[in-house]
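Q: I have 482 residues here and want to know how they pack in 3D. Can you give me a structure?
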Amino acid sequence: MSKTSALREMLLYGSALLLLKGASLITLPVMTHFLSVEQVGQLELIAITQVFFALLVSLSMHENLYRFIAVAKDQLERKLMTNQLYCTAILLSISLLILIGVLCWLIETILHYSFTTIYFSQSQIMLMVSALAIQGALEISLAWIRLQNKAEVFFKLSLFCTVLQVSLVLIVVNTLPSVTAVFAVGVFCVFVQLIILHHYNRFNLQLLSIEQLKRFLRYCLPIMWSAVIAFGLNGGERWLLMQAGGIELLAQYAIALKFALAVGILLQPFHMWWMPKRFEYWQNQGLKITAKTSQIGMIYAMIITILVAWVGKLFITGYLPIQYQLASNLIAIAVISMLFKELAELCNIGLLKAQQTKKLLTINFAVTSSTLCLVSLAAQLYPQHSIWLVSCGVALAQVARCSIIFISSQRVDFLPYQNTGMALILLLTLLFVATTWATNSPLTSVMFAITQICLLLAVALRCKLINIPYQKMRKLLQRLSV
């Protein structure tokens, strides 16, 4: 694939993800106006609980698409294996949901204690189960679209689903501003998305053989457990915060994290293009090109982090109700956590290529368990500072996790990164993000943001970490305008 085609795909993927995952940011001012702080916190609790169970029931089956199906030479074989993976994922998800439901019923019967209805209503639980049943199949369908380089299809689907979701949310919060109604809109849009993808991909009922399933599970289960363990730093800490500080502090933390999530959303153009192709690049284009491409993604992530830190603070102070001002000070820590989480994903090529997913599981377990224990203890001892203890603890843990994964990956399969230049860029990024605490002036903030991004790019060019293809970018923009 040419650089022009790659850039075009990244722009389409980026626009699509900005629409699809940015819907929550688009509706945020309206949601905070019509819903109370407690309701915003309740929505966050539902969302993060659903994410946790989605990790369990989806089994990370879509990872097999990247590792095994993407490298298959025959296109018909790719389609057949994807079809089988898709149908098997639905069957496994439904089976696991039934198993989890039975286990919950047995525990509640024995203990005479219904923990599922403490925080959620029966209708909310049913909505969660419905969405979880199709989560794995949806991930595989979207990954299959990306694997075929159908970025335009992905963009059109994302545009339609975003317009549908935002429109329905605006109608619901104006007519029936309840947590269940807003959540039901999200579940409905997920089903609409899967139905469209199912019709487009024309999948039929075919299942993996037992041998294929065993092979795929051996690869993806350690990745799934790694994701479940890493969830402790990307969701589980919110449960701790709610227990220590209450649902109102959870709402503040959630607002800051929604803006930090923009780092991941804006990185998705590169992420979605690069992740399915990184092993193919390693195999066909060599170590140097693979390292350089991954390095470009890391620098892009750092630039986005600075931008989001400033824009998020300006947005909260300027457009959200006064009771959310604490979130503006939490953004700096939240975006640093997100940055190192994304850097860990970008530099973790060696471990996955060598299929050493068990080592990744061990790293995630060690970092997450130690962090949650320390943060939980500190939050219980100093509940008045729980929100700062949780956010800082998670940020430090992400730094440690990223460092360990990078070192381990390099030891298993070395990639020739420019370590000195990258370390300098990273230190500058952390310094620039910290300066967001120094001012609340909109004009000063804008000037700082522009200056810092330009300075970071200048240092990257000086260290020869990136080169800007001016002529190709101009041609690409001309084609897009046409």
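Q: Anything worth noting?
A: The chain is about 85% helix and 0% strand. The CA atoms of residues 240 and 376 lie 7 Å apart.
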